[in-house]
Amino acid sequence: MATAAKKAASQKTVAKKAAPKKTVAKKTAAKSGSRKLAVKKPLKKRVPKFDLVIHSAKDAEWAHEDIRPQFEYRHFGVEEATKRRYGSHVIRVAKGARPPVRHHVHPDCEFLLVYVLQGWVKFWYEGEGERRLNKGDVHLLPAGIKHAVTGWSKDLEMLETTHPADYQSIELTEKQIERLED
């Protein structure tokens, strides 16, 4: 068994050594005025480390959030595992809820992706108008786009993923909405 473990360890080492590395060449000036390339140094890429998250659907808890009382949210723990750099949750329609979700904007949300898991949802987007997303459809909102949720099916479920996890949601005034429609 010890031989098999040594063989596996040496294969891992070989695989690591064989992997290509990005390098940076640096020019240096010699006293004689000629230029030489310095020793190549591998670039170190900073990759944030996150905790492993496994969340079972059978143990899922659905929460109401004040910002959108029309919906219930199932959080997976992504926010905590990533130190709030990312957010990801399933959204479903709360019992008896009716549209719309008023026109609003997320000025500091760099990434907001919605994937429709079940049912359908209608969004209104600034510059685009109203669009219906069905099961399997996706939208990726650019930061600062004004939008509204104008309709949905009773069985709607959407996966929403954001960066960062916490961002502003600012409702537009009636006057601002009127200007959008002009």
CATH topology of the largest domain: Jelly Rolls
Give the integer mean of the pLDDT values.
85
Cα shape: globular
Query: Poorly predicted ranges (pLDDT <50, ≥5 residues)?
Result: 1-19
Distance N terminus to C terminus?
Answer: 76 Å
Q: Roughly what percent helix?
A: 10-25%
Strand content: 35-45%
Count of spatially separate domains: 2
Helix segment count?
A: 3
Radius of gyration: 25 Å
The CATH class of the largest domain is identified as: Mainly Beta
| Order of helix and strand elements from N to C terminus | HEEEEEEHEEEEEEEEEH
Determine the structural class based on helices, strands and strand pairing: alpha+beta
Quick structural overview:
This protein is an alpha+beta fold and 182 residues long.
Explain this structure to me?
The chain is α+β, with helices and mostly antiparallel strands. The chain has helices at 2-18, 78-81, 174-181, and strands spanning 23-24, 27-29, 35-37, 41-42, 63-64, 71-75, 87-93, 101-105, 111-118, 120-125, 129-134, 138-141, 147-152, 157-163, 170-171. The protein is globular and about 70 Å long. Mean pLDDT is 85; it is low at 1-19.
